[in-house]
Amino acid sequence: PSHSYTGQGGQESEDYESEEQLQRRILTAALEFVPEHGWTAEAIAEGAKTLGLSVAAAGMFHSDGSELILHFVSECNAKLSELLEKEQKLVQLGEAEKKPTDEFLRDAVEARLRMLIPYIEKWPQALSVLLLPRNIPSSLSLLTSMIDDIWHYAGDQSTDFNWYTRRAVLTSIYNTAELVMLQDSSPGFEDTWRFLENRVADAMNMSHTASQVQSTGEAVVQGLMGAAVTVSSAETSRALR
Amino acid sequence: AALWLCRARPLLCPGRGVPRPLRGLAAGPEMHFGFQSVTEEERREKIYQVFESVAKKYDVMNNSMTLGIHRVWKDILVHKMNPSPGTLLLDVAGGTGDIAFRFINYVRSVRERQLQRKLKHHQDLSWQEIFENYQEDKSNSLGDSQVVVCDINREMLKVGKQKAQHLGYSEGLSWVLGNAEELPFDDDKFDVYTIAFGIRNVTRIDLALQEAYRVLKPGGRFLCLEFSHVSNPLLSRLYDLYSFQVIPVLGEVIAGDWKSYQYLVESIRQFPPQEELKAMIEDAGFFKVDYENLNFGIVAIHSGFKL
């Protein structure tokens, strides 16, 4: 329900804000304090303080920081979509080259993972909270929609089984790269980016290998057929002699 | 004013046929005092007398009536509050200080954990710096948190102050004589407002809720712990049996005061149920109003925010 936020003097301010909007503002303000306090009610309390609200406002949220983490993930996904949208516009206007698929995927995943860097120390805590049964529906849906977004901007228009394969592959690439990043101490996370590059390359090769295997298979079958025909005709001709 | 005594209440069906006043407002001059019908002024006076007489035995009676469970309820309230150091709490009808002491303990332990974490982070401190940190600790074990205990009844406050001295609570605690319907505090002062087992005894609940809204800071939280209604029929019968048969007897045996505990039990039945209280809290202007039943509704914690 929208209401007006009454200021100290009892005068109503111009902007009408709903409960959800206010909650989102508090969570955004709280992100600043996460590196110090972790994904906790304390960070939310500090965030509320910066907005001029009482620290008790943190009581609106769960004490394990679930809402804060989910809010952060959804904000990051939104930022990624914006970024990909902008890039697509540039390509459409002819101001940029269309990237090959592997490069596109690599850059998109890297951009998304880079958003974790300021919070990387406390991110393992966040991941464990996201895996709580209570949060799994939300965290899973955020993950799948992000992956879907990336493939959409990569130009995927498949309507067959490939749709599932592509998303499963990219999801596993993203998850494994995220885990590598948590333990990466190399300068500028270069180990992670190299890992990412290799995984994307593997995925690309796998699809080539798959079609190779198929054509090899066909060749083998044809060879066997030919051998069988040769053997049977040789038998027949010997029997006839 | 009409004053009819309904002593001969059939034991198995209490609470029926008694006119219930409008939500939080006096229906004309008639108000309820337990199952009696009285005027506003009479009600206030009678309640003052009740608590004046029970003050000394208040804690003992609480423990025996609720079999000690009231302590758990109060712990849950403070846990739900989850106060961070620096919180300013107003505990209304806080009488003997139960909520205030729990608040202080909670904040103290949170502060200790905070300081431990801070020290762990700073691995290479010189001895001088460590010494200074510990000095700071001593003078700031509560992290600037404070609780103001406000009660309308002098006797209850007296008992509370004595308890505080006895248990060793001194800093961050103040005692104020005041009426929940007209609090002696400025606007937008407190982070949290609690009223535990007190709102039932307030004559104009709507005024108390409005005052709560007034004295809370924007973003502040209202928490109310109170006896409420049990919807489970079997449990409700057992609870009624226990309330009307056992509690007044305990009152007579332990505190020598049957009437006060009869009032207590009756007032619980007269108090609005969960949803109605929630609506009243929303009327006062609070948002995100919610309640949590404890022990199947024997007790409920209502929470709202001033947004």
TrEMBL record, chain A:
Occurrences of domain Ubiquinone biosynthesis protein COQ9 HTH (ranges): 19-49
A Pfam family matched in the record: COQ9_N
GO cellular component, as recorded: mitochondrial inner membrane
Keywords: Lipid-binding, Mitochondrion, Transit peptide, Ubiquinone biosynthesis
Pathway note: Cofactor biosynthesis; ubiquinone biosynthesis
Coiled coil feature spans: none
Sequence ranges assigned to domain COQ9 C-terminal in this UniProt record: 136-206
GO molecular function, one term: lipid binding
Compartment(s): Mitochondrion
GO term, biological process aspect, one: ubiquinone biosynthetic process
Broad class of the protein's primary localization: mitochondrion
InterPro entries xrefs: COQ9_C, COQ9_HTH, Ubiq_biosynth_COQ9
Annotated signal peptide: none
Database matches in Gene3D superfamilies: Tetracycline Repressor, domain 2 (1.10.357.10)
Functional note: Membrane-associated protein that warps the membrane surface to access and bind aromatic isoprenes with high specificity, including ubiquinone (CoQ) isoprene intermediates and presents them directly to Coq7, therefore facilitating the Coq7-mediated hydroxylase step. Participates in the biosynthesis of coenzyme Q, also named ubiquinone, an essential lipid-soluble electron transporter for aerobic cellular respiration.
Quaternary data: Homodimer. Heterodimer; two heterodimers of COQ7:COQ9 come together on the same side of the lipid pseudo-bilayer and form a curved tetramer with a hydrophobic surface suitable for membrane interaction. These two tetramers assemble into a soluble octamer with a pseudo-bilayer of lipids captured within. Interacts with COQ7; this interaction allows ubiquinone (CoQ) isoprene intermediates presentation to COQ7 and facilitates the COQ7-mediated hydroxylase step.
Similarity section: Belongs to the COQ9 family.
NCBIfam families named among the record's database cross-references: diverge_rpsU (TIGR02396)
Name of the protein: Ubiquinone biosynthesis protein
UniProtKB/TrEMBL annotation, chain B:
GO molecular function terms noted in the UniProt entry: 2-methoxy-6-polyprenyl-1,4-benzoquinol methyltransferase activity
Any GO BP annotation: methylation
Classification via Pfam families: Ubie_methyltran
Protein name from the UniProt record: COQ5 protein
SUPFAM superfamilies reported in the protein's UniProt record: S-adenosyl-L-methionine-dependent methyltransferases
Keywords (A to Z) from UniProt: Methyltransferase, S-adenosyl-L-methionine, Transferase, Ubiquinone biosynthesis
Leader sequence segment: none
Function: Methyltransferase required for the conversion of 2-decaprenyl-6-methoxy-1,4-benzoquinol (DDMQH2) to 2-decaprenyl-3-methyl-6-methoxy-1,4-benzoquinol (DMQH2).
Oligomeric and partner information: Component of a multi-subunit COQ enzyme complex, composed of at least COQ3, COQ4, COQ5, COQ6, COQ7 and COQ9. Interacts with PYURF; the interaction is direct, stabilizes COQ5 protein and associates PYURF with COQ enzyme complex.
Organism: Mionectes macconnelli
Gene that produces this protein: Coq5
InterPro entries, A to Z: SAM-dependent_MTases_sf, UbiE/COQ5_MeTrFase, UbiE/COQ5_MeTrFase_CS
